[in-house]
Amino acid sequence: MDAKTLHTLEFDKVRERLAALCSFGVSKDKARALQPGADLHAARAALDATAEARALLELEPQAGIGGARDIAALLEGARRGQVLTALELLDVRSTLYSARGLMHTFKRKEAEYPRLCELALGLYEPPGLMEAINRAISERGEVLDGASDKLARLRADLRVTHDRLLARMQALLINARIAPHLQEAYITQRDGRYVLPLKAESKGKVKSVVHDVSSSGATIFAEPLQVVDLNNEWRELQLAERDEELRVLAELSARVGEQADALAGTLAAIAELDVQFAKAKYAAALNAVRPALEPLRPPTEGGHPGLTLRLSAARHPLLEPETVVPIDVILDERTFCLIITGPNTGGKTVTLKTIGLLALMAQSGLHIPAEEGSAISLFKHIYADIGDEQSIEQSLSTFSGHITNIIKILKKADPQALVILDELGAGTDPQEGAALARAILENLAGRGIATLVATHYPELKAYAHATPGVVNASVEFDLKSLRPTYRLTIGLPGRSNALAIATRLGLPKEIVAAAKRGIDPAELRADDLLDEIHRQRELAHNHRRAAEQARKEAETLRAELNERLEALEDERLSVLDEARQAAAAEAERLNEEVAAIRRDLARARQPLEALEQAARAAAEVEEQVETPIVRQRVAEAAPARGPIRLGDRVKLRTLGREGVVNALSEDEAEIMVGNLRIRVELYDLELADGQDKKPDAERTADVLPRVQAESPGVELSLRGQSVDEALETLDRYLDSAWLAGLPYVRIVHGKGTGKLREAVRRELKGHPHVERQESGGPAEGGDGVTVAHLRRD
Question: What secondary structure does DSSP assign to 212-233, as a single string?
Fold first, then answer.
């Protein structure tokens, strides 16, 4: 990608913000070196990786690279044989800890995070290296006693020798021959050896080796000859300890050097994952979305390069989110050149930079600050000429600087590029500048190159209107506040606001009138027409926004009402469930009592007929307990309309459906709803609206489309019923379940002799609502349950 374009569109600032979210130096360098890709597959994979990182951070906010360090220089030094310090080895260990944590994070998660797991394949932990560092070095960066047997032995000897030396020195402090010559009664060190502070005038009176003299000369620091051997032994042990520590560090450094290449790969993988986490954090901070990155379609006969540009509510990522005004940039399949006109400081340049920068971000794997559904083509190159190109060193004016840059762009650009030009043709004579701008645009459009242009020249408005593939756009200006609104309108050119602004600012009316007389009346009428179009468009926008707000408020109220109703229904179901459990316990108790009495009567050889009534009562209680508790809605009571007769069109209160009465009994009716036959209680029926006014011939004409009904529950228990009763109950239940749109139902028939199960499965096999059936799973009751999958047509 063109380096000048990256700087012009401020992509380097985006990279700096990304680097600030990285955790250590290597990933920061990678973020600053991020480049937009020209390969569609790689760019889409990068966007997917960012989406996966966002999903992971939402589920596991603590996920990250932990305490990884930039150990690249340490690895290179270890490879060359350099001995690393204890603290440097701790940095290596911290990086290995980070790699282990990341490997644990992505272990067995290839399905959820395939792109991140692919990056994590570069992680490697040399066997035993981290444990070896842990055994040898403490958290404070000290070599531990357990680093080697020799070091442990040396340090034990060192402690013993040190204790003996201090005890000997302590005895000398209170020695009657030495004490009078002490300047003060304490023990100190000089040059790593223990000494006593003696008075200067006592020099030679105590046999000793002088190591130092105080600044005043009044005190000499001397080592009594009695402790010279012990001091020598202690010092020799210290040197041996130092050498053994160096040997341990050298051994660990050699192990790091042997694995330097693998550790460098691990470091690179950690840095790459850290960049992905930084991209995810940046996307979350911007409230960004994953754009659809599209290939350029094959060019058409009209020269269209196959551009896709659909940015909804796009925002410049470097502007304050609270103040930036979102823009919609949507080009249809016939348009590939956009000419933006409008006042100065109206947002033309920001619009161009926003489009160009979001294209660069998308091709770099960064999510863009826009709304869902945004899409943009992948461009092989993006070229931009924006800003003041004046160069004092090259003696170039602003115009010359722009033209020099445009010449380079015209040489390099092709149909797979995006060209962005700000203030095309500015900085010179307006007539020549307009002609030059039009010629450049004709060249780019004729070559089928996607182009975005900002200009002040009115001649380009007419060019856009008359040229296929080119469209006008404008940034709006508020004449009341005399400030730009920064909103982009595609399809309409910008208006000339000079006279209106002058009038608002108080320029004398006669001067404004004189100025109007010098303008072509056709142009004034065109401006008036544009004003009216903009006004009507703004009015429609406001109405649409108000309607959308009203819709959202209605949805909110409906959601609140549904929540309240659901809470009430949950409470009702809870009460019923408690009652059902109590009844189940009572039924179990009755069955146990009946069984006990039956056993007693059998032992006494008494007739059992007396128990039959009690057994039937217990069975009825048990059947009622097993009846599913279904979620219901309260139906409004309907006024009485007289008796229901055969052929009447009636409404089912609980289902909210209308049908025709096909059969009647004392307390039930059979209703035809379309081609469905439903048996319901009479109290659940009411005459349909307008029934009394229609002749009998029309009362049988009922054809209703299928709509969602109240669910009867996904489980039906038929235990305790005869085959005929069970099949009739099953038929009504399947009709209700199909109307409610249930995907499947569970029929509980028990195992027993198998007669009821076979009858149920034969009925299901030929039923019009059942697509297929299968036995219940182990957790559902096995062969005692049949699962029926219902048709959706």
Answer: EE-TTSSEEEEEEGGGHHHHHH
Which tens digits make up the pLDDT trace of 249-259?
999 999 999 98
Residue 130 has pLDDT above 80, yes or no: yes
> How far is the C-alpha of 7 from the C-alpha of 356, rounded, in Å?
11
Instruction: Please list, in sequence order, all residues whose beta carbon lies within 8 angstroms of the beta carbon of residue 304, skipping any fewer than 6 positions away.
Output: 333, 334, 336, 448, 469
Residue 317, classified by CB atoms within 10 Å of its CB into exposed (0-12), middle (13-18) or buried (19+), is buried
pLDDT digits (tens, 9 = 90+) for 721-749: 888 888 888 888 888 888 777 778 888 88
- Given pLDDT bands bounded at 50, 70 and 90, which one contains residue 502? confident
Predicted confidence at residue 570, as pLDDT, reads 78
Structure tokens at 249: 């560090």
For residue 525, pLDDT beyond 60:
no
Largest distance between two CA atoms of the chain: 143
Tokens of 774: 């299968």
Place of tokens 């009652």: 579
Number of Cβ within 10 Å of residue 98's Cβ equals: 24
Q: CA dihedral in degrees (507, 512, 513, 515; nearest 10)?
A: 150
Distance CA(208)–CA(227), nearest Å, equals 9
- Count the alpha carbons within 13 Å of 498 in the hemisphere toward its beta carbon: 9
| Count of Cβ atoms closer than 10 Å to residue 357 Cβ | 26
Instruction: Check residue 394 and give its pLDDT.
Output: 42
* pLDDT average, residue stretch 625-641: 50
Residue where the block lists tokens 């290296």:
129
Which pairing describes strands 450-454 and 417-422: parallel, antiparallel, or unpaired? parallel
Tokens standing for residue 150: 């020799």
Q: Rounded distance, CA 406 to CA 384, Å?
A: 9
Range with lowest mean pLDDT among 306-315, 350-359, 451-460, 652-661: 652-661
Number of separate helices (H) and strands (E) present in the chain? 21, 23
Cross-strand partners of 745:
788
Residue 533: predicted pLDDT: 56
Strands 292-294 and 381-385, how do they pair? unpaired
Which of 451, 446, 490 minimizes the C-alpha distance to 468?
446
Residue 167 in this model has a pLDDT that exceeds 80 = yes
Query: Looking at residue 739, what is its pLDDT?
Result: 78
Distance, in Å, from the CA atom of 690 to the CA atom of 164, rounded to the nearest integer, reads 116
Burial 523-537 (b: 16+ CB within 10 A, else e): eeebbeebeeebeee
Give the SS3 label for residue 252: helix
**Alpha-carbon gap, residue 119 to 61, rounded angstroms:** 19
Amino acid letter at 171? A
For residue range 648-659, list pLDDT tens digits in order: 888 877 667 788
**Residue 258 phi/psi, 5° resolution?**
-65, -30
* Percent of the chain topping pLDDT 90: 25
Q: What confidence score (pLDDT) does residue 364 get? A: 94
Report how far residue 461's alpha carbon sits from residue 473's, in angstroms, rounded to the nearest whole number.
9
Structure pTM?
0.61
Separation between Cα atoms, residue 320 and residue 597, nearest integer Å: 84
Decide: 538 and 495 in contact? Cβ < 8 Å: no
Contacts of 652 (CB under 8 A, 6+ apart): 658, 659, 671, 673, 678, 680, 684, 685
Q: Where are the beta strands (DSSP E) in 437-524?
A: 450-454, 470-478, 483-490
For residue 217, count CB atoms less than 10 angstroms from its CB and return exposed for 0-12, middle for 13-18, buried for 19 or more. Answer: exposed
Q: How many Å is the Cα radius of gyration of the chain?
A: 44
What letter represents residue 547's amino acid? A
Q: What is the pLDDT of residues 91-112, one digit of tens each?
A: 999 999 888 888 888 887 888 8
Residue 9 backbone phi and psi in degrees, to 5: -85, 5
CA 272 → CA 6, 10, 91, 122, distances in Å?
22, 23, 19, 10
Tell me how far CA of residue 441 lies from CA of 20, 424, 446, 491, in angstroms. Answer: 40, 9, 8, 18
